[in-house]
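Hi everyone, sorry if this is the wrong subforum. Our group has a chain we'd like a structural model of before ordering constructs, and none of us has done structure prediction before. Sequence below.
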Amino acid sequence: MPTIKDIAREAGVSHGTVSNVLNKTGKVSIEKIKLVEEAARKLGYVPNAQAQMLRQGTPTSVALLLPTLREDIYLDLYQSLQTAMHKNGYETFIYETNDIAGTEKAILEKLPFSGIAAVISVSCLLDSDPSAYQAIPCPVFFAERIPEQLSQNQYALSFDYRSAGKCIASFAEKNGWERIAFFCDPNNFCSSRELLAGIRQTLRCSEEKIQIFSSDISLTTAKAFSIIQAETAFDCVITSSSLRAKALDFALQLSKPAKRPAIFTVGAASHSYCTTFEFDYSQIGTKISKLFTAYQQDASVLPGQTVFKGKGIPYTFPNVIRQSPCELTMLTLNSPSTQALQKLIPLFEEISGIRLKISSLAYDDLHSYIEMLNKHFYFDLVRMDVARLNTLGPSTYLPLDEIGISPDIFPVRLIQPAYNNYSMVNDTRYTLPLDPSVQVFLYRKDLFENATLCRAYYERYREALAVPETIEQFLHVAEFFTAHYNPDSPTRYGTTLTTGSSFFAASDFLPYFMADHYDTFCSGEPIRLNTPEMIQAMEKYQKMARFAAHENTWTDSIQQFAAGNVASVTIYSNHTGTIINTKHSNIAGKISSGIIPGHHPLLGGGVLGVSKYSSKIEACRQFFRWYYSPDTASLLARLGGSSPLLDIYNDFKNRTVFPWLSASKKSFEIGIRGVDPDIAPDFSTVHYEFALGIAIRNLIAGSATPQEAAAMAQAIYDAPSAPVKSI
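Answer:
Right subforum, don't worry. Here is the predicted structure as tokens:
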């Protein structure tokens, strides 16, 4: 294995220079960075991060002791902890115990505590030898399995396993299952004890009514076969882990018994072969990071305990009441969210007894159809763009409060404050957000974190390469990553401009104007477009055109980003799904996100309401109950759709898979679209954006200067009968 000394000799630089490059510290010239990186590649140097940090002898790491990483819940715990701690400058190192007491003791004895800031443990020692953790000199966080008593520097985090057991038992009771097996670990950990206690309490049965099986991790498969092949044909087998559920499914596939028992488990997510009472173990990792940060400021936060509630058994939809057979028709936009919803139609029909027929159209066709609405209108449920709500909402929809559809009928939390933006017209609620979207900034984190690029950017602009806060910084970033202006750029362009129609052009441009002149836009004065402020914003947009790929639609822009042709893109969040698909993306796993430059994103996406000519009000209520349930929202998110439910944006797994969700949540809180009707009651978002969009398209085509484009926008806006169709 080559050393730093070998690399220094090969590169012809000092040991200190090599150390600075490898650790991304100090001010090293681009030339020397390239020399060191080339020497490291030539010699086959691979840094051992764990060894590096532990040699330093400073508390810059945390130790995570887990029974196994084959269990989904523990993998979720690790990923959330690693992500949160890394942001605070700490690395997370994993130690697997396989629930063997001797192994766990040996790990604790050998830990180099001079370099460890905290220990997190899913321990198998707490019942047999809790003293093993007493002498540890740093904070200890127990996860899932908790001791009876906590010492001064300890904290416990677990889940309400007893409630989970009660819920599972109620499900079993409802289905008439009497012969029940419980498959758990042999050590009778407190989590298993609480789970079993909840089951027994609900079923009110003696110990003989539930047959208990146990095995350690290494013998799980063998024990699963003995359960499936036992003389008793069980109606249901309840397990304490997904590993055991998976082993049971394997045994069932090979044994092929005459009767297949239902398999229940507690875990991270549902699987096709079992029903899961879901626990979000990422909550533990995130909470530990917050507690650790608080502990560094105030040690009195320890000891303490947190017990999280579970997410429950998914896909039960308790608020949906099965109806007499009927058919609902829905008009919506052809979008990723609609495609996700199409896949769930069979589920809705099975639960509700209602047939759902969806017709999806392109943006302009959809709203042209809605504008021609009359008493012969075919559709019961109608989706329109949020920008059209003020104009078309009252003539299209029944007020939701009048037909008994409001957030009160389903237990959800809609993302705020976007909720009112997607619902209200003149203090009347006509719609709820269907697939809300907001502009976000996506960028290549592999490029923004590259040491050579960071140094080159600093030498050029005398500022750090980072997510741009202002339009001026965005111009610098875009220029730097445009090959025509920087031959060393790894991408052809810095960003994209999306100007294929007046609608796209206005949405793309408005953040440039609102970045510095948001107050002017919302002042309540007569809307003026031909102003020095507007001209200044158009000049910046015109300059950005030199550093951008020019695209027609959001789909085109995101494809450019996915192909690796641009370093960043400003895009509506509901158009982002394809970039995580390795089949269609060259940058999957290299993406990060932030709030758009200027920090005034536009809201987008659609709203859903009931057509004022629909006669199927109760069936519409059932669709709303189903669509706005947490279970449906979770399914939509996993299928690449958008949801208005706040829980989707808070879920760690979702944020890991879809890295723009955190930025989207923050952007919804500051996003706008149009003007507050209380300030400008006659304002038309469609009219305003049409006028701006036509002007911007002429500006980018080179047929108008910024001054001429501003005057053109004003003239179109002031026209007494301006068209509303996008061109």
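For your construct planning: The first strand starts at residue 61 and ends at 66. Confidence is low (pLDDT under 50) at residues 53-57, 722-727.
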